[in-house]
Amino acid sequence: MIIVNLDVMMARRKMSLNELSERVGITVANLSILKTGKAKAMRFSTLDTICRVLDCTPGDILEYRPDPE
Question: Given CA atoms 38, 15, 8, 54 in this order, what sign does their dihedral have?
């Protein structure tokens, strides 16, 4: 299972969803889908831009957790 920790990184950087949306060039609605983990995919270019804006790595945003058996 892939966990999206976008909200954690935004909180660490004290950045609102609206500010991130403006700086990344993605709608608030689409960022909200990413933030809540409801997205089925993310473009590498989007991930790259988010990482540049939040000054982090993809591993700070995306986390892998195996499904419990």
Answer: positive
Alpha-carbon distance of 38 to 44, in angstroms, equals 17
Q: Give ∠ CA 65-49-66 in degrees, rounded to 5.
A: 5
pLDDT digits (tens, 9 = 90+) for 26-40: 999 999 999 998 999
For 42-56, write each residue's pLDDT tens digit: 999 999 999 999 999
3-state secondary structure of 28: helix
Nearest residue to 34 (alpha-carbon basis) of 9, 65, 67, 13: 9
Q: Which residues contact 34 (CB under 8 A, 6 or more apart)?
A: 4, 6, 42
CB-based contact 4:62 (threshold 8 Å)? yes
